[in-house]
Amino acid sequence: MSFPSDDELMAGPNALEPHLIGHDWPEDFRAGFACLVGRPNAGKSTLTNALVGQKVAITSGRPQTTRHTVRGVVHREHGQLVLVDTPGLHRPRTLLGQRLNDLVRETLAEVDVIVFCLPADEKIGPGDRFIARELTQQRTPVIAVATKADKVSRADLAAHLLDIQALGEWAEIVPVSAVRGEQVDVLTDLLLARMPLSPPLYPSGELTDEPENVMIAELVREAALEGVRDELPHSLAVVVEEVTERPREKGDQRPPLLDVRVDIYVERDSQKAIVIGRGGSRLREVGTRARHGIEALLGARVYLDLHVRVAKDWQRDPKLLQRLGF
Ligand SMILES: Nc1nc2c(ncn2[C@@H]2O[C@H](COP(=O)(O)OP(=O)(O)OP(=O)(O)O)[C@@H](O)[C@H]2O)c(=O)[nH]1
Fold first, then answer.
1. Which numbered atom of ligand 1 lies nearest the CA of 177?
2. ipTM of predicted assembly, 2 dp
3. Which of 23, 31, 141, 164 could form a disulfide with 198 if both were Cys (CB 3.0 to 4.6 A apart)?
4. Which residues form a coiled coil (predicted)?
5. Closest residue by Cα to residue 93 from 324, 325, 313
6. What pLDDT score was predicted for residue 184?
7. Whose CA is nearest to atom 30 of ligand 1?
8. Rounded-to-10 torsion of CA 93, 165, 34, 121
9. Is the pTM above the cut of 0.80?
10. What CATH class is the domain 212-323?
11. Cβ of 119: how many Cβ atoms within 10 Å?
């Protein structure tokens, strides 16, 4: 990614934080962008969290809601790595899939390095080969990572690494266990080495600039998919309609109370029934689970108002896609 001019650094949406301007950084400082790709469940979110060193992305599920979003910033003394999480590449079957793949391609071309996640506990399959073909069609260097290395024996891991090697041309191949934190530093160093010389892109200490609403939507989506992922694979979108703070009595020392209104969109009535459950029981659980996450995220008390709506064939309707933020 090309580095902005001085004028651009001082103004515009990519402006450096004012307190950074005029500050010194080491001459050999490197900073740039990386994105993680891999089929669903490959361990991308978990690895993002391990790299950043703090839970910022929400693990599991919902690649369909995240696009060109900064997921976290890895700060080191001599470099900075901005992680852009991309949706899982997959064969386009719907308009949504097609659009996401276009976005993915855009992201791949713009970042400085790509991390290709291939879970060690699963055989390399057609999905991985599809992604590998995409990756070889562009020039950004790719580091192939055997994720979930802790889940297999050494011999199986070695075989997996050989399979990865046979799959394409990779700048590096590294086994990593994000859950155990094994080899995460090795991967960080390899990634930083691929970054261009550059001043820091973010003030230190900043882990993510992801808008809170996206995080709220992901927490609700994660909760809504829990246990019914097979029945509702990609047919679920979440829109945060409104977040408002309730007025407080003077002297009230308790954390603020927020009203959070969220719509869950599904494609069919049958799916709506699944999300809501018998007598609304499941939706109440979804609400409770999501609310705990949102309260932890925002440091506030939350009243969560969830609505389930049917948006027929939303994956194929460009207007609806736009409304849902795609
Ligand atoms: N044992 C083990 N499990 C892992 C590791 N990394 C991820 N997992 C598990 O694998 C599952 C999927 O991980 P995610 O990080 O959500 O995968 P993802 O690629 O972001 O998934 P999508 O969002 O569906 O694309 C979760 O249940 C994780 O806990 C690892 O290093 N070791």
1. 31
2. 0.97
3. 31
4. none
5. 313
6. 94
7. 148
8. 70
9. no
10. alpha beta
11. 21
